[in-house]
Design brief:
Elements lengths: L9 E7 L7 E6 L12 H5 L3 H11 E2 L4 H5 L3 H15 L10
Antiparallel strand pairs: 1-2, 2-3
Helix pairs in contact: 2-4
Length: 99
């Protein structure tokens, strides 16, 4: 089974407002390349560390979020992002833990 290179769309609990434009109501994360993980500890990302997730999300989100927008995400949205990132970092064939 091939690991996805993009997450399913994450529907935000609280939309992100930017100026006069349409608010961002969902984001998609893509699998990070090694260079995008620079300065971060993989263990922190696997464990859902808030600071590590906030630093990584702007690098891999579509539409691109700022670090300030990532820091202002609803906790449920940040958790969804952390779960998607942890899934990207698992080896092929590794099963995710049962819920």
């Amino acid at each position: 089974m091939t690991k996805p290179t993009c997450s399913d769309p994450i529907v935000l609990e609280q939309a992100i407002k930017r100026g006069e434009g349409k608010p961002i109501t969902e984001i998609t994360l893509r699998k990070p390349a090694a260079g995008e993980l620079r300065g971060l500890k993989l263990g922190d990302l696997i464990n859902g560390d808030v600071n590590a997730t906030i630093r990584l999300v702007p690098r891999i989100s579509q539409p691109t979020l700022t670090e300030q927008e990532a820091a202002a995400l609803d906790p449920a949205d940040l958790l969804a992002c952390a779960d998607a990132v942890a899934g990207f970092l698992q080896k092929k064939g590794a099963e995710s833990p049962a819920a």
